[in-house]
Specification:
By secondary structure, the chain is mainly α. The protein folds into two domains: 61 residues; 34 residues, Ribosomal Protein S14/S29 (30s Ribosomal Protein S14, Chain N). It has three helices and two strands; from the N terminus they run ααββα. A two-stranded antiparallel ribbon has the order 1-2. Helix 1 runs antiparallel to helix 2. The protein is elongated, with a radius of gyration of 20 Å.
């Protein structure tokens, strides 16, 4: 099990990301426009920098929903390799079979 604080911090980041997503995307698209005035773009960059760091999607870490493990994460199942193996062996994941040849 991962530390509870790490999992909670990640949940807090996800809430911030979802809450500031529109404003962040609007600022980024404005900055990307090359035909706008330099001062306006610089002001947009400053506004973007003023947003909380944790509202950036890059800071979100994919974690296993069962254990909170950050490594060996399978996006398709939203769980770590260890949990995936346990569930697949128990037959709790439909369509997943153990390879044998």
């Amino acid at each position: 099990m991962a530390k509870v604080s790490s999992v909670e911090n990640n949940k807090r980041r996800l809430r911030l990301i979802k809450g500031r997503e529109k404003s962040r995307d609007a600022l980024k698209s404005f900055i990307a426009l090359k035909n706008t005035d330099f001062e306006q773009r610089l002001a947009a960059v400053h506004k973007l920098a003023q947003l909380p760091r944790n509202s950036s999607a890059v800071r979100y870490r994919n974690r296993c929903e069962l254990t909170g493990r950050p490594r060996g994460y399978y996006r398709k199942f939203k769980m770590s390799r260890i949990s995936l193996r346990e569930f697949a062996s128990a037959g709790l994941l439909p369509g997943v079979t153990k390879a044998s040849w």
